[in-house]
Each structure stands twice: as structure tokens, then as C-alpha cells.
Amino acid sequence: MTLDERGLDSNGSQLRTNASIAAEESEPFMGEAKKSHVNADSHVPDPEVIGVSEPVLEEGVNQQTRAAKIHDFCFGIPYGGIVLSGGLIGFIFSRNPTTLLFGGALLALSTFSLKIWRQGKSSLPFILGQAALAGVLLWKNIEAYSLTKKPFPAGFYAVISAAMLSFYTYVVISGGNPPPKKKLKLAASEQS
């Protein structure tokens, strides 16, 4: 018999027995952890492991992977607001309504895109319209920057317009806006 640092009497056989009991008790937990892997075929977790009684639809998962990760109007509305406010300031000083009209059109297209998306319809025409306006603004601001070499406002708007044109291109290539979560739940309940 030995005395450990806590003042308890124990021998080697009791320690081995206690260690084997602890290992046996932890096996059910290890088994459950091994079951929670993702199926290689469908990329959907086992419904019994995650506690879902109804089957998980592969179509809903595939539909989400074909959509962009962020909606066009999440960046489009602020972008339209920035261009509109810059256009308003420019209109006050130079009486040139061009940027004011572009900002208003961008803001309107982004808002309509949000409205159509909430109805569960495709907002692709509005995304394409925003992309076209971002491309025109990029061209216009690159020309203005090349003539004036002023980083603000022409260089600033050129950089933002290039970023937004890239973003709209990403949204179009990835398949448009992600579907509303309400529509996914309705589609799942209709198919079951």
C-alpha cells in the first residue's frame, strides 16, 4: 500500500481497476461522437444523430450552395446611399445632376431587389441593373481621376465602384441571392 499526495491509501491494482472502469464509461460518449460525422454521399448529417425526425432535403442544401453568401442589397443600399449623398453634394456645388441620378437609381434598384427577394422571386434583373450602373460609375470616375489626379472624390468612387462591380459579378456568377429562410421551410414542409 502507498500513500499518494492527497493522503489516500491506494495500491496499483485499485488504480488499474478504476482506470479501466473510467475508460469503459467513456466509450458510449466516444461512440456518439463518432456517429456525428457528415455523410460523404449527401453532405448532410444523419437525421437520427442530430435529433431530426423528418428527413433533411438535399435540394434545399444544393440550392443554398448555388446562391451567394450575402444578398446584393446588403451592400447595394449603402453603396447607393453613398453615391446619392455624394451626388447631392456635387449637385449643390457644380449643378451637375449626373451622379445624383446614378445614386438615386442605385438606391432604387437595391430597394426593389430587397422587395422582390422578400416575395421569394428572382431579383436578377435588379442585380444586373446595379452591376451596369456600378460599371458606368467606375468608367466615369476612372476618366475623372485620370484627368484630375485627385484621390477624392473621383479616386474614392472609382475604388468603391470597382469593389461593387466585383461584388455584383460574384452574386450573378454564384446564382443570385440566397433564398429567404421562410421559403426554404415552406418548400421542405410541402415536399414531406
From TrEMBL:
Keyword Endoplasmic reticulum set for record: no
GO molecular function: fatty acid transmembrane transporter activity
Keyword vocabulary terms for this entry: Membrane, Transmembrane, Transmembrane helix
GO cellular component terms given for this protein: chloroplast inner membrane
Subcellular location per the Swiss-Prot or TrEMBL entry: Membrane
Transmembrane segments: 73-93, 99-117, 124-142, 154-173
Keyword Membrane: yes
Record family assignment: Belongs to the TMEM14 family.
PANTHER family in the record: PROTEIN FATTY ACID EXPORT 1, CHLOROPLASTIC, TRANSMEMBRANE PROTEIN 14, 15
Protein name stated in the entry: Uncharacterized protein
Source species: Rubroshorea leprosula
